[in-house]
Write a structure and sequence with these properties.
Strand content: 25-35%
Structural class: alpha/beta
Helix content: 25-40%
Order of helices and strands: EEEHEEEHEEEEHHEHEHEHEHEHEHEHE
Largest sheet: 7 strands, mixed
Oligomer: single chain
Distance between the termini: 15 Å
Number of strands: 18
Shape: globular
Number of helices: 11
Length: about 350
């Protein structure tokens, strides 16, 4: 038996419960978690913005140590330190054959599986976004497991599993920020802080952080922001004033709200690029008129998991960490136990802090 945070139903509070995990079968791996990040996507699963079968053990940003491997697993062994990949590519769908593995049509198929049972009543449990990291241990497909490169602290490595891959990829893969360009980042949570660091690594000059909370300015500047704007009705105007009245070359939206997406787009220069990372609900409608689309010549694009290939990008991120260019610990504003996840969700809704990290 292991302890886990279980979502019994959409809209219901999380329950800390004991669960029974099977031994890993063919192509599976059992992992003892060292840490798991509390991501906004987990909150989106609890409130129904994103749908998964329930009851489920949530958590998709994690790292830990291999306990056991099933038949046919050869790329890792018991005792290895690993990072979880919640969206493994199948390699055969249309997107994968195009090299766009972040759009894999089958990436989340495992979320429908029954992977464990609640000890108290034997209820079937699903693995959230494939990996069920809000638990002391988990059993996952071997495709969801990546070896942790040398020299990276295991606990902080959990952030590489989602926040950092997403923020770094938004800058380097989706927006393709070039040295000397100007960047605005909307939302200073875990992904936003990762995005700010990635913009600094890319060589951006003016880096504007935007958030509703004045208290996040110190966090943002430590991550690389050269300017800080408290979100308001005049945000786009303020950003243009900071960039010679032109607007930034690139805006990255990490919130998932219609008004923020629209403001990010308006904050870019003529011909600028806006990348939307935040996951919004179906009720968040963003509108444009045909004339402004023609006149401004701006690009607006979605970004899934940073448009990343985790197997290729993880070694690159590890090198940035080892070289001191990427500070994983700076993303974490709170280290908590499983029981602290509901409060971390509340802080997220209230716009407080960066990344909360569950440490086992």
């Amino acid at each position: 038996m292991v302890r886990a945070a279980v979502l019994p139903a959409v809209g219901a509070p999380l329950e800390i419960a004991e669960i029974d995990l099977p031994e890993p079968g063919p192509g599976q791996v059992r992992i003892r978690l060292a840490a798991a990040g509390v991501c906004h996507s987990d909150l989106s699963l609890t409130n129904g913005t994103m749908r998964v079968p329930v009851p489920a053990v949530l958590g998709h940003e994690g790292a830990g140590t291999v306990v056991a491997v099933g038949e046919g697993v050869t790329h890792i062994s018991p005792g290895d330190s690993v990072v979880l990949n919640w969206a493994p590519s199948c390699g055969t769908c249309h997107a994968c054959t195009l090299g766009e593995v972040w759009l894999c049509a089958n990436a989340l198929n495992g979320a429908a599986d029954v992977y464990a049972h609640r000890t108290s009543d034997g209820a079937d449990l699903h693995p959230g976004l494939n990996v069920a990291a809000f638990a002391e241990e988990t059993v996952v497909s071997a495709a969801c497991v990546l070896p942790l490169p040398d020299g990276i602290p295991l606990t902080d490595a959990a952030l590489l599993s989602c926040a950092v891959l997403t923020g770094y990829g938004a800058v380097h893969h989706s927006a393709r920020v070039r040295e000397g360009e100007t960047v605005a980042v909307f939302g200073v949570g875990g992904v936003g802080l990762s995005t700010l660091q990635a913009a600094r690594i890319a060589g951006a000059t003016t880096i504007v952080a935007v958030d509703v909370s004045p208290e996040k300015e110190e966090l943002a500047r430590a991550a690389g922001a050269t300017e800080y704007v408290v979100a308001s009705d005049t945000t786009a105007r303020e950003i243009r004033a900071l960039t010679g009245k032109q607007g930034v070359d690139v805006a990255v939206e990490c919130v998932g709200r219609a008004v923020t997406i629209r403001t990010a787009w308006e904050s870019t220069r003529r011909g600028g690029r806006t990348t939307v990372v935040g996951i919004g609900g179906k009720d968040q409608q963003v509108t444009f008129n045909a004339l402004e689309l023609f006149h401004w010549g701006r690009t607006l694009s979605g970004c899934v998991y940073g448009n990343s290939d985790p197997a290729k990008d993880l070694p690159v991120l590890a090198e940035h960490v080892r070289a001191g260019r990427l500070d994983l610990g700076a993303l974490v504003t709170e280290r908590i136990a499983l029981e602290g996840i509901p409060a971390a969700f509340e802080n997220m809704v209230a716009g407080k802090g960066g990344r909360a990290l569950v440490v086992f």
